[in-house]
Here is the input.
Amino acid sequence: MDKFLRDHPSKPRTRDEKEKVINRLKRIEGQVRGIQKMVEDDRYCVDILVQISAIQSALKNVGFAVTERHINHCVSDAIKQGEGKETIEELMSVLKQFSK
Amino acid sequence: MDKFLRDHPSKPRTRDEKEKVINRLKRIEGQVRGIQKMVEDDRYCVDILVQISAIQSALKNVGFAVTERHINHCVSDAIKQGEGKETIEELMSVLKQFSK
Amino acid sequence: MDKFLRDHPSKPRTRDEKEKVINRLKRIEGQVRGIQKMVEDDRYCVDILVQISAIQSALKNVGFAVTERHINHCVSDAIKQGEGKETIEELMSVLKQFSK
Amino acid sequence: MDKFLRDHPSKPRTRDEKEKVINRLKRIEGQVRGIQKMVEDDRYCVDILVQISAIQSALKNVGFAVTERHINHCVSDAIKQGEGKETIEELMSVLKQFSK
Here is the structure.
């Protein structure tokens, strides 16, 4: 994973933090399975598109939660240690990708 | 489902069409599970964000495929029958939601 | 302009239609000039970003209005004449670009 | 401007920094005027939509440049002074708005 600056967050996620994110991802996983069933049942296209939008929105919110924790810990720690430059460049690069 | 104009596409999806979409959704489901494992393993935030971006991109492509089929069949059929107005309004509404 | 299917909409825009779009674009032009002044006055970054978001939203709405008229006229006319295929492909291509 | 944490960036923009951003905004302003002319000339909808996409992309890039400078100065300075919390919340809020 040599293209990233680190392998782990600068401050490990607590059990509670992990569970909150994983639970949100499990709900998203369930929504993706729900769409598979809608396609199998030949449901109306617009109905399917509305569900896809809902997943995109949920996924974006997970992304923002991960980003906020990243800035609060990894980026903040790097800045405090006078090593913010690379971390901020990496952050901007992923924000650009994320907003496409 | 009375907020949608229909329950099913104007032309039923073939077995082959269903399978193509479902296979793409199964891959996306696998990617969502992959992120759960990344969180469990306390992987680096940016690494996780890149994977979330990849899912968003894959999901958007499924949405565009569903939209294209919708226009090719439901919308086109409605227009040919002189009943395009409501169908086009419904399409615009979902496109706006989808692009948020 | 040989990469587009047409030079003009299948049904010409009325004076009134043109003015509505142009007025929205003039407001957007004014907003862009407003941001130039904010930069000149060295205003706070977040304040500037909020204004940029407002312009993006206004611009997106103009795009949706143009898209809706395009579907209501150019795309509908092509479909009625049995020539929807290329027009729908062109529409999907611009929708993908527009949603980036 | 009491909804923002500051009136100005923590480190003033140099003349050169201001000019770079203003020049990009002037080009965008010119592009917006160009679209007004396209509407006046009743140009093809897809042609107009492609130009709107180009402006959105240019505007997003200006937004990212402003965001990067904001993180490099205002956010970094707040973090170094142990006052990162509010600044990071404000940043997340504008990132969410910006990505809509």
User: Anything to note?
Assistant: Helices of chain C lie at 15-40, 45-80, 84-98.
